User: Fold this.
Amino acid sequence: MRIDRNKEQYRINERINVPEVRLVGDNVTIGVYSTSKALQMAEDMGCDLVEISPNANPPVCKIIDYQKFLYQQKKRQKEQKAKAIKIVVKEIRFGPQTDDHDYNFKLRHAKEFLEEGAKVKAYVFFKGRSILFKEQGEVLLLRFANDLEEYGKVEQMPVLEGKRMIIMISPTSKKGGGSTKPLLIKNDKQEVSENKTK
Assistant:
């Protein structure tokens, strides 16, 4: 069943129903051949004729073992994924009048997240009339960013979005170091909310 699904992705052998194809690869003389001739060449080599670029004119094909071709494609995809960094975003929620105990609890979590290479999205949630304390919320977030100065840098200063004032903090360094390819951003909404013991 697995092979049939792959054959729907790439046309091979008799499924290539065009009069001629362009052959590429190290095992052939590159050029345009009739499809029947290309099929005969593939059969003589004990391989498959695989269409790798159907939209070209004429379509581009390779003579290769089809299973080997699929393996190479999967290996290439894995390598591309391995070169990308997965950035995780952790959320930390405050109230406008968070006490020192809650604040320090969340600060510890934020330090752990940043050390692991995650971004921290901290926000103050204003409920009802507590929106009147938005300046207090901004001060709290700026204090939070200042206390995390050794672990992360501010990516976005406090911004009020609806009932939430948000600040984004990125890690100053990533585990393992080294140069990397473009980022693959993943939202991981792991919230550290206030302890509601009222």
About this structure: The CA atoms of residues 90 and 189 lie 6 Å apart. Confidence is low (pLDDT under 50) at residues 1-7, 175-191, 193-198. DSSP finds five helices and nine strands in the chain. The longest strand covers residues 152-161.
